[in-house]
Amino acid sequence: MMEPNSKMHLEEDICIHIFTVSASMVGVCLTVIGIVNIVISIKKITTIADDLLAVNAFIFLCSCLLSYWALRARSKRRMHQVERIADLIFLIGLLLMVVICGLIVFVLA
Fold first, then answer.
1. What number is the average pLDDT over the span 36-51?
2. Which of 15, 35, 43, 63 is the most buried (most CB within 10 A)?
3. What value, to the nearest 5°, has the Cα angle with vertex 88 and ends 66 and 79?
4. For position 57, what pLDDT does the model report?
5. Distance between CA atoms of 23 and 61, rounded to whole angstroms?
6. Domain ranges in the chain?
7. Which one, of 102, 90, 94, 109, lies nearest residue 49 by Cα?
8. What is the pTM of this model?
9. Which residue has the higher pLDDT, 92 or 80?
């Protein structure tokens, strides 16, 4: 059986992972926006992928800020609530990223 301290440590680890990966995904989104804009200007095509990537960067930023808030929360209950929201937003961001990747492949193919 898990001790309460180890469970709390595990939850902090999850928040830390959400925080770091979300921040990295913001950078990935911004990088891909630049690459997509270069491809759009070269191939003379239109796509909403760069607009969706900007929205996705904002989603990952929200997840990053919420996970940071969860790490800073003094109350366990508040930490759990904020962590769940950050986790859900992060998963929505990942799902949107997959949709955007499919869109980019569809437009460029």
1. 89
2. 63
3. 45
4. 97
5. 7
6. 22-104
7. 102
8. 0.85
9. 92
Q: How far apart are CA 92 and CA 45, in angstroms?
A: 27
Amino acid in position 40: I
The Cα 72–Cα 1 span in angstroms is 27
Q: Is residue 82's pLDDT more than 80?
A: yes
- Cα–Cα distance list, 35 to 5, 49, 68, 105, 109 (Å): 45, 11, 29, 13, 16
The rounded distance, in Å, linking the Cα atoms of 38 and 31 is: 11
Measured N-to-C along each axis, helices 4-43 and 49-72 cross at an angle, to the nearest 10 degrees, of 160
- Determine the average pLDDT of the residues in 4-15: 66
- Read off the pLDDT band of 44 (50, 70, 90): confident
Q: What is the 3-state secondary structure (H, E, C) of 35-104?
A: HHHHHHHHHCCCCCHHHHHHHHHHHHHHHHHHHHHHHHCCCHHHHHHHHHHHHHHHHHHHHHHHHHHHHH
